[in-house]
Structure formats: C-alpha cells, structure tokens
Design a protein that fits this description.
Layout (H helix, E strand, L loop, with lengths): L9 H9 L7 H11 L4 E4 L6 H16 L11 E4 L3 H14 L7 E4 L6 H9 L3 E4 L1 H10 L9 E4 L2 H6 L3 H9 L6 E6 L4 H8 L6 E4 L2 H4 L4 E7 L5 H11 L5 E4 L3 H13 L4 E4 L5 H12 L5 E4 L1 H4 L9 E4 L6 H8 L9 E7 L4 H11 L5 E3 L38 E2 L8
Parallel strand pairs: 1-6, 1-7, 2-4, 2-5, 3-4, 5-6, 8-13, 8-14, 9-11, 9-12, 10-11, 12-13, 14-15
Helix pairs in contact: 2-3, 3-4, 6-8
Length: 420
Amino acid sequence: MLFKNFGLSDELLRAVEEQGYSIPTPIQEKSIPAVLNKEDVMGSAQTGTGKTAGFALPLLQRLMLDGKNTNGRRHIRALILTPTRELAAQILKSFQTYGRYLPLRSTVVFGGVNMGEQVRILRSGVDILVATPGRLLDHVRQGTANLSKVDVLVLDEADRMLDMGFMPDIKKVMALLPRERQNLLFSATLSNEIQKLASGILHHPTVIRIDAENTACELVNQCVHHVDRKRKKDLLSEIISSKQWQRVLVFTRTKHGANRLAEQLGHDGISSTAIHGNKSQAARTKALDRFKKSAVRVLVATDVAARGLDIQHLPHVVNFDLPLVPEDYVHRIGRTGRAGNEGCALSLVCVDELGLLQNIERMLKITIPKMVTKGFEPDHSIMAQPFKTRDHRARGHFRRGPTRGYRGSYRSQSQQMSLA
C-alpha cells in the first residue's frame, strides 16, 4: 500500500512526498480510508506511529471536496481537541505541513498566552481549529469561536484528557456542536473509561488497534539499570558523562522531581532544563527550544508536559522513574528510534519499582535486559516503599515491588550491550 493508492489529491501527495514518505504506517493504512469514507473511528495507537497524519491527511481531503464555506466566509469545519499546549501546536504544524498547497486555513488556541492574536485569527475565519478545551470555551464565551458548523470532531489523546479532568469541558463543547457530524477518537489505550466515553460520542465506529507491543520499536535498545532510589541521580550523571551523551530526554514521575533532577545534573556539570505543568507556556517553549538547539544536553519532563513534543533525532530516553501505568512506558520510549534511526531507552529501577517493571514486561511480552553498574550495586537489605498516586489509570496495573529485595541476577556493566 502506498499513499497514492488512497485517492488523495495531487497537492496532498506532493506535501507527503516532500516529507520523505511514500508508505503509510499501520495506523495510517487503516484510518485514512475510514476517515475518507466519513466513518466514526476509535483508534488506539502510541506516540511515533504516525497517528496525526492518519487523521490530518483525510480531513484535509474531505474539507477540500466538501467546500461548505458560504458567502466567502470561512467557518470552523474541523475541530481537534487535545490535552496539552505542546500537542496542540504539533498537530497544527502537521495540518499546515500537509495542507501547504491547499487553500485551507488552520490555527491553534490554548491557554497560557494572550488571547489577542488568537482572537484576530479566529475573526478572520479558519477551516480547521486545534484547541485545548478550556481556552476553546473562553473563545466561545467571547463570541470569537462559533462551533455550529463543525463537520468533524477529533478527540486526540483522549486518555490523557480524562486523566487531566477535562471531561466537564469536553461535555460543554459537545453540546455546542451539530448533532450530525463525523467523530474521531484516538487514545493510547482503550480502557473501560475510554470505551464509556466513546459510547456517548461515536456512532458504530470503526475500531483500529495498533498493539503496544508492536510500537516498542525494534530500533530502540531497551535496558534496565538496577540501583538504589537515593543513588539514581548520581548514576544518571555518571552514565551521561562517561558515555558523553549530548541529547537526552529524561522522564520523572513528578513536577518537583523534574526540578530537583535538572538542578542536580546542573551541579554535576551537565546542562539541563525541566518542563512540567507548573511552568508557564513561555518557559516551556523556551526550555524546549534550548534543548532542540543543543544549548542544554538534558531535558527533564513529566509525562503530561512531554505529550506532543516533536524532537527530531533524539538518541536517548531515560526513565528516571518508571511510570505507574505500563502503556506510558511505550509512549516514552517511542520518542527515540524514529525515522529509521536507532535509539536507546534506559530505565533506572529501584526496589520500589520491580513490580512496575514486571507489569511493563508482561504487557510487552519481552524480558528487558538488566544490568548493575560497578560502584552502584543496589543494597539488597533496602525494603520496597509503596507509591503515593492519584492516577486512576494505575488501578488494576499497580503492584508493589517485592518487599524482600531484588529478584533475578544481573550482568555487570562489562557484560552488558553498548548503550552509546
């Protein structure tokens, strides 16, 4: 199957070709025909699978063919709701990239920035609007966003929107949309909560599942380093320095943990910056820009802040803390090993997290190689401590680490595969 077999316009195919693509990914191969056929879609796919193009390309084609703008006035015909500012900006970039040769206008609205420029663009008329729910409702209340002519609604990262408490806002947005419309819902998982949400929005949807174990890219070299919880920072500094890693995305479980780790790495002579939900949009944009320009070597992020980040040629991802939900592990490591490039995903695992590691391996149906670094051997007398979490997704997944210490045997660093 090639992109040209979908019946996309010459303008779209030209834009796709300029991006260097000719063969669609599995999610694109299944979603593009369904969206073109005006079917409702419920899709499950992780980061790095090409999901955004899977709905952006057919939506651009549909809007061109339908041509429902009247009296020379543009109306919002496609609405894409996303949970974070970064993801919203990235989705807009995809629509603008693939739609560069089409006479369609698109824009994005999200909080944390002044509304003035957003108001100006909305009043000039747009065909496609990408938005976070709260800021969209602000524009609706001001009369600068009219949703009465929306033909297609896309809920992207629906699981994260549930986690972040956006359901009340989403319901308010839904009440403003026409009853007759096409609905697309994409989520990293199809949990019971997501399926319940989908049942109230989608009508006889086409269900597309791209299994998580297929998205833990074969080009990603995964490895676990066992270490005591209090020595993780020192071990991370040692690995980055000794292997001379220059571009590293590090995931922490909490916002405060991200700040502390970035500060610690800085004290160790490793330039670092952190992004998380407590930082302003301007601060997050500046931090990401510095990382992309290699002004800093390490970007420390929480899962929510990292959603939608577009970082090309990212060779190393580190799980400083394992995620409480195994699907988030796949989401994290999917940041590296893209576009045919090899990548490294390293996890620092203490005794508290052994149960989480077992859940990840069980989901992926693999055994991740494990090692102990000389000088950082874990103390087997340390007992596991329970986690404190408000993440409802962890229910049913969460298992405490063994309380009697580590299980299994680990190879020394000299026996372990190269992580350079």
